[in-house]
């Protein structure tokens, strides 16, 4: 499917291209044309082959350098399983430090939101991912971490990260988990999301130097977060919203035009098909794009 001309429209919508240069080019266009910032992500996760780990590491470091030369936020998303966690957690840690050190060197003295953003994967790696974040933070390297609203434990994790003055991206969470560790109903997850947003945008979090990142396409959660931010004295630019490239682009542009800081998760790489299919699965209304592409082939 990745090699088919029939699916090229899907690749263009959800993925910035195959190379780091194409990814950074798309990020530059988004900022110039729509005022949208980007977090670059080289596609591929749950890697269990050393050669692929090395390839992923090289791509992360390459895109950090290209972002710096383009004058953009050096903001790179990384899955721990991309950089060796499944093979050797110690190797993954060393690779994460290598990426963060490149980001720190590339951004010295230039004000912007620069970070190695640690993506959160399934519940079995939450402790390790937060531990990696804390180690990078203790070393004063530019790091942020993702938490998932569907997990029961997230409120406790968030409270500790707020005390640290960390940067945290809150997402819904897309991995399967039982009721013993996760909220399983959508209404429960939404309720917990609002509770967590209230914590992220509390006066206590602001006083601690915490940086909230609310990653959602739900307009009601956007409105809730903006209302909470205004009530607690946050200014636009002291927090941000994150969305996916190709999903609700109209909403992202509208929020940015209204003065909100918006960042898009911008994937690039050759293995784009699984990512694109997940986007279609999350919103079946997008299935028409696939159907039309195949019908026109």
Describe this entry's structure for a reader.
The protein has 297 residues and is of the alpha/beta class. It has a single domain (18-271), classed as Alpha-Beta Barrel (TIM Barrel), CATH 3.20.20.220. It is 49% helix and 14% strand.
SSE run: HHEHEHEHEHEHHEHEHEHH
Taken from the alpha-carbon principal axes, the silhouette is: globular
Unreliable parts: 288-297
The number of helical elements comes to: 12
The CATH level-2 architecture is identified as: Alpha-Beta Barrel
Report the C-alpha radius of gyration, rounded. 18 Å
Instruction: Please give the alpha-carbon distance between the first and last residues.
Output: 12 Å
Biggest pleated sheet: 8 strands, parallel, barrel
Number of strands: 8
Strand arrangement within the widest β-sheet reads 1-2-3-4-5-6-7-8
Structural class: alpha/beta
Q: What is the mean pLDDT?
A: 89
Residue share in helix: 40-55%
- CATH topology (level 3) name: TIM Barrel
Structure summary:
The protein is built from 12 helices and 8 strands.
What descriptors fit this protein?
297 residues, alpha/beta, TIM Barrel, eight-stranded parallel beta barrel, 12 helices, 8 strands, 49% helix
Q: How would you summarize the topology of this molecule?
A:
Blueprint: H1 8-14, H2 20-34, E1 37-42, H3 50-69, E2 75-78, H4 89-107, E3 115-118, H5 126-138, E4 143-148, H6 154-164, E5 167-171, H7 186-200, H8 203-207, E6 211-215, H9 219-231, E7 240-244, H10 249-257, E8 262-268, H11 273-282, H12 287-296
Helix pairs in contact: 2-3, 3-4, 7-9
